[in-house]
Amino acid sequence: MRWAPTLLLPPLALAAAAWSAPTAQSTAPGAAAEALVAAQCNLCHRAAEVPRAGLTESCEGCHAWIRETSASPTARAQALTLFPLWPRYEENVQSYLQVPDLDAAMARLRPDWARRYLENPHDLRPNLPETMPRLGLSPEALDTLASAFGRATVPARPSLEPARVAEGEALFVSRGCTACHTFGGQHTTAAVAAAPDLAFARERLTPDMAVAWILDPRAVAPTATMPNMGLTEAQALAVRDYLWLTDPGGVAPADPLPLPPPVDRPVSWAEVQSEVFGKICAHCHMNPALNEGRAGPGNDGGFGWAATGVELETREGVMAVADKIPAALLRRRDEARRDVLRPGERPLHVVRPDLPGMPLGLPPIDDEDTALVLAWIAQGMPE
Questions:
Q1: What is the pLDDT of residue 22?
Q2: Domain contains 79
């Protein structure tokens, strides 16, 4: 089971805001853009007509700022003087550094697929640890968000033709598509984190859009990161038909593992705070008294979910909900069969309970750290 990448600690984000906060765009958003902001999609994604989240709120923006600062010797020296724990932040910031561009997604993806996906997401990128979090959105909000997709208009192309499949498969391999993309159980060795598994292409794109995208992605969306592979139209048709008419295969993910037994040694609050709660949970479940009134989406509500009042930044806050923590961790292990896939695995249709598992949008916490948490709770949650 993959380790959940650690998140940025709130105090750093607060201090960083005063140093170098990005400026929000002034474009007045339409209904779809307003819905994107209301669902807090702009905490991770960027889109031209959607205002950027401030540095204290943006997952992607804050983490990118840490990496950029660390890459500059001058800026890093300044950070080390301002933030005593800067080396720990550099070590921990791994997630939300690569996220799909919403302009490219809204240009090419089918609205009907986008609505189904937003309602019940699954892992599209098996080499990217974080996944689309489950959102608590109303049907009306989902309809509005879906209306933002499928914006690009592309020419009609010839219909699917089985006779082109063999040529398409040969091109898919010879032109290096397998260096970036997995394709179900057919091709599983690609390691580019942001490249989606093309087993889902036929659900996400129309056949005509697929040809246009293969020919020239930036003609469809200027922010596209996929390169122009220099294919002719006939070759693009062949690759599309290979992806559309070939069974991608793939295996079902393993059944969820039960929670491990607690470790057989004393565990202190300092240890579980350092290894688990302070790395992951506190980012969304903040203590507002320690963060200038900010409580985080897991405490004060966000991503369509109502406020819970759950604070996981202090020992007292964790103790107040300790009886609910094992169930939340176990739910995430069950959801992982849909949300956290390895190359070659197919997402299962799991039963979604009313409350999502934790950590939201990230892989389950591994056995070692889960065993720490369970031991600390079983030992009476000592300091």
A1: 32
A2: no
Q: How far is CA 269 from CA 33, 286, 301, 323, 378, in A?
A: 42, 17, 26, 16, 12
Here the CATH number for the domain that contains residue 231 is 1.10.760.10
Whose CA is closest to 313, among 329, 325, 299? Answer: 299
The encoded tokens of residue 247 equal: 């069974």
Say how many C-beta atoms besides its own lie within 10 A of residue 280's C-beta. Answer: 22
Report the Cα–Cα distance between both ends of the chain, in Å, rounded. Answer: 29
CA atoms within 13 A on the CB side of 309: 2
pLDDT at 380: 97
| Cα distance between residue 173 and residue 217, in whole Å | 19
The answer for residues whose C-beta is within 8 angstroms of residue 234's C-beta and 6 or more apart is none
Residue 291 DSSP SS3: coil
Q: According to the model, what pLDDT value does residue 24 have?
A: 31
Contact 199, 143 (CB under 8 A): no
Q: Is residue 307 part of a domain?
A: yes
Q: Are residues 274 and 373 in the same domain?
A: yes
Residues 227 and 319 in one domain: no
Question: Biggest alpha carbon distance in the chain?
Answer: 69
**Do 229 and 313 belong together in one domain?**
no
Between CA 337 and CA 173 the distance in angstroms is 29
Please give the pLDDT value at position 13: 43
Range of the domain at 348: 269-378
Predicted confidence at residue 292, as pLDDT, reads 80
Give how many domains the chain has, as a whole number.
Answer: 2
pLDDT < 70: residue spans in the chain: 1-29
pTM equals 0.86
Q: How many CB atoms lie within 10 A of CB 234?
A: 10
> Radius of gyration over alpha carbons of the chain, in Å?
22
pLDDT reported for residue 168: 98
DSSP state of 305: B
pLDDT given for residue 31 in this prediction: 84
The mean pLDDT of the chain is 88
**Does residue 212 share a domain with residue 277?**
no
Residue 210 CB-density burial (10 A; 0-12 exposed, 13-18 middle, 19+ buried): buried
